Amino acid sequence: VVALCAEVMSGCRSLGPGSVDRDRIDYCASVGDSWKRQTLLYIVKLRYMDPPIFVDIGQIVASYSLESGVEVSGQASPSAESRFIGAGGHATYTDKPTITYTPLTGKKFLRELMTPFTPQAVFQMIQSGWPADVVLYASAASINGLRNQDTTITGVIPPEPEFLRVLELMRNIQQSGGVSLRVEGEPDKPTATILAFRWQDASPQTIADSAELRKLLKLDPKATEFRLVATETPADDKEVAIQTRSMLRLMWTLGAQVEVPEQDLAESRVVSGWESLPGASTQARILTVKSSDKEPKNAFVAVQYRNTWFWIDDQDLKSKHSFAFIMFLFTVSDTSE
User: Fold this and answer.
1) Using CA atoms, how far apart are residues 17 and 185, in angstroms rounded to an integer?
2) With bands split at pLDDT 50, 70 and 90, how would you rate the model's confidence at 142?
3) Lowest mean pLDDT among 97-101, 190-194, 243-247
4) Are 232 and 145 in contact (CB under 8 A)?
5) CB-based contact 225:196 (threshold 8 Å)
6) Taking Cα atoms as reference points, which of 121, 101, 138, 34 lies closest to residue 333?
7) 311: which of 2, 139, 185, 319 is 20 to 30 A away, CA to CA?
8) How far apart are CA 323 and CA 263, in angstroms?
């Protein structure tokens, strides 16, 4: 009996180490999937003029406890009838995950969702490798007076062709390595942000793209550095004035691109969207959200709203890339410590 007890107790192990790998992966997947579904739901609700309520996961605490024990008892007596040996055991397992949720309201809501992105943050994302056309199409309302797509309660205003050409040229120059960003002044208090176009070792095509870009933005054709400012129009031909969107404005704009049931359109349950544009199928589009009355089987992310399923196809790489970028912008919009 003593040998059996020793064997049982030696087999006990702490729950902690074994749970780390499992819990970390499982919680990461759950939080990620929930974040994707919540973001898509916000975009869909704004198409229906339904104000979204934002809820953050504040904290996740997973606690486990395992209590076990072995009991052995016996009695020896000259009388055979009075001799006995008894053994018993007990085990108690407790799993108490604690998850807190924080509604996004007040100053935090204003700071994270209604404050426009800074031009510096926008171009730093481009500098870090994000495609310039995707970044600017999502975050910029205008560049040097050239206007991006806008959405109002009466419908969608398409982007100016010159704006789309600027994005195309910026992407070409970015791929050639011909654009850089430099911040002048104190590290914690920058006084100027410089957008520089490199001429050294530039290909003839890059030089031609740069010249066309300057012409469209009305920039000095001989200058190689330009100040980046957060205004609608530049002060001179050595400034790049970019008017940026807020996170909420971006989702409002994307909401107009959501495909909705024909009946909802006919009954005026949604605002006019992408389908109202002439030649909508040929217009530039950053995100395609489909809808159906049945749950999709091949969805990257799907959410049900008003008895309709809205989803992004798992094979739509462009929309998946754009959606991932939109989620990344949530971290950019959070300026808190």
Assistant:
1) 48
2) very high
3) 190-194
4) yes
5) yes
6) 121
7) 139
8) 27
Say which residue the tokens 């129009």 belong to: 233
Q: Which two tokens stand for residue 274?
A: 């992408």
Identity at 169, one-letter amino acid code: L
Instruction: Give pLDDT tens digits for 85-124.
Output: 777 777 777 777 788 877 777 677 667 778 888 888 888 8
Spatial strand order of the sheet with 290-292 comes to 290-292, 308-313, 299-305
Distance of CA 157 to the CA centre of its chain: 25
